[in-house]
Amino acid sequence: MNRSYYTVGLILLTFFVISFLTNITGPLIPDIIQGFDLSLTLVALLPFAFFIAYGVMSIPSGMLLEKYNEKKMMSAAFAVAFLGSLLLVLSPNYLSAVLSLFLIGCGMAILQVVINPLLRTAGGEEHYAFNSILAQLIFGLASFVSPLVYSGMVSKLQAEEKSGGLFGLLAQFTPADLPWISLYWLFAVISLAMIAIIMVSHFPKVELSQDEKAGTFKTYIHLFKQRVVILYFIALFCYVGAEQGVANWISQFLLTYHGYDPQRTGAEIVAYFWGLMTAGGVLGLLLVKLMDSRKVLVLFTALALICLTAGLFGPGNVALVAFPLVGFFASVMYPIIFSLALNSVKEHHGSFAGILVTGIVGGAIVPLIVGSLGDQIGLRYGMLFLYIPIGYILSIGFWARPIITNKVITRKKKVATP
To answer: Cα separation of 57 and 80, whole Å?
Structure first.
């Protein structure tokens, strides 16, 4: 038996750190634009650099996992993230920021590939579904916390800049006109701490199941020849693109059109976006036990579109509510799309999962398109591009034909006795 509650706890902590580092870019965008004097297109290259790393590293990481153990892979991942964070704090400029986010993205991509099989082994296959849901809730919690930490750190840094103490010391190593850089000192410390924890930890031996193995090049070619594989790859591309396309531009939108302070109000609304996404995930789990997941997907996606429209064209007080609600209704998209995808093919689920995870590059492409359009026609109309990926997700509920559908709770009919 390879059960280890300690390792499960370490994996859940890793999920928290991944999310903490991943979803902070959106709240920082207004500060980055001002600090580096960037256009919307240039600032969009930052999340592009982060998420393109997933496309570069996901499949190679799966192959490396079969050669090196989990401890080495996780340590290497945090070492890469540490180097990325250190690069930006030591050389705070735009090009360093692009390379820094790419390196951090590479580290997070490696971790995503490693920790799921490890969670299955350490927690037990019979508890894997529960632990996976718990991991997603913790992932969402970290996404909620990180913008608030950013807001608190910047406020504290500015208040105690000339005083002693930790923040006074931090202020000496942070450019006065780029207070958000302090967050990357925190990322560097967190990465070092995680390396230390991993190095002293004992990991259970993980035997990759057939579904978790990377597969051969021929396997990927075989899968890409299937229309359903392409359709679901596009679906994951659209989901992550839409998610990041909203989250990355909320703060800048609220500043541009309603004058809200990005370091306080903007950061809080992004935090609520992720927080409500977590809450919506809990509701989604209940609903897929009561009705076909395709119907849940159609309902929630339609409501997400309505809220996005209200956020883009409503007054400021409406936007403050509508944008977080987009996160609430987007919450079911990823798990439902992923489960429909895997339930639509008969074999090579591990390789197919690798292809689906590669679709995370949508988080690189879609925000970049929104930013480019925003430079040409204004951010509000640039964000209308999000209707395309969200519309595609809506369509899945109508064309998906899984081999196995989700099991729902049904009331047994009483058999009449003569």
So the answer is: 12
